[in-house]
Amino acid sequence: MDVQLILLIIGLILAFVMAMNLGGNDAANPTSAVIGAGALSLRRALLLFAAFTTIGAILQGHMVMKTIGRGIVPSIDVTGAFAIILAANIWIFVATMRGMAISTTHSIISAVIGYGIIKFTLSGMNIGVVGTIALSWLTSPLCSLFLAFGLYRGISLLIKRYEESPDLMSKIFRALLIGSLCFSAYSFGANDVANATGVYVTIAMNLGQMPDYTAMLMLAMYSSAGIIVGGFIFGPRVIRTLAFRVTRLDLKTGLSASLANALVVYLFTTVPYLVFGYGLPISTSYAAVGAILGAGAAKSVSSVSRGVTARLVFYWIATIPVNIILSMAIYYIIFYVTA
Fold first, then answer.
1. Which domain holds residue 268?
2. Nearest partner of 81 among 217, 194, 196, 200, judged by Cα
């Protein structure tokens, strides 16, 4: 059997595993707030996560898939796709088993950069796109943090105004919290589904002789299946970290964090695509944690767990160099062994 065909088959299997890791690590982003606030059980939250993530992936997953597949580097060959997927898989799995919500997006983008450096050098990469993505990584959690902070204050004023009907207000806010979970899961599917299979867009188009949108739709459906499986198997560990250990969420905090996360992820996916032609692959983990910290700080700065937050930041910082080096090393080894 041809070496490239073997790498393609193994790579697609790893892409499914990547989607499972994606679901396991990032299912916490849409669900942690609603679970931490006690509005839904873990099982029901994961069922809604599965449904709306799939819808978002099918309807808008192509927006970011285009960026990862063809925006950073001119093209990604079979060996490169294999190296990228394997490198990101290794790091995400390690972090998930440690219960840390690291960025799947940072993992895959950093691995693509590592491949681009060794294959095309920096001069052959689209540095403008890389810079824009990097800027979005800095701004998205800050946007989530300040938006959640403001939403918490606004919701607090609203509750105070209608405090004479606490049961009614509780029902309304629980409904809003569940609605924000659905919106957040939809946004997650639209932005993050590309992380698992975006590197295979050009390969799928060439092998299947199909239009790019058809190829991206098929890859989005393939990714969604893996995300759902991973969310149910591996997700609870990370969900509990964000829902109960970073800061303790009550109804107001959970709603503020969930709404902020959903809005930021959706806007960073959709607006750049409409303006520039490609969606920004932001870290939904960063956006979610930023939103939870912002809402928690609005409630009480002391409610934020500094120890857990410090560990999260350490894993986030390590993600970029680890994946660049892993991707370069894997590609180098395979290229010269099979040459």
1. 3-338
2. 200
pLDDT over 80 (residue 23): yes
How many other C-beta atoms can be found within 10 angstroms of the C-beta atom of residue 333?
11
The total domain count for the chain is: 1
Amino acid sitting at position 246: V
- The whole-angstrom separation of Cα 199 and Cα 66 is 9
By residue count, the chain amounts to 339
Cβ neighbours for 165, distance < 8 A, ≥ 6 positions apart: none
Number of other CB atoms surrounding residue 80 within 10 Å = 28
Task: Tell which residue, 73, 10, 24, has the closest CA to residue 236.
Answer: 24
Task: Note if the pTM is more than 0.90.
Answer: no
CA–CA dist 108, 164 (Å, integer): 50
How many alpha carbons fall within 13 Å on the CB side of residue 147?
22
Encode pLDDT of 288-298 as tens digits. Answer: 777 777 877 76
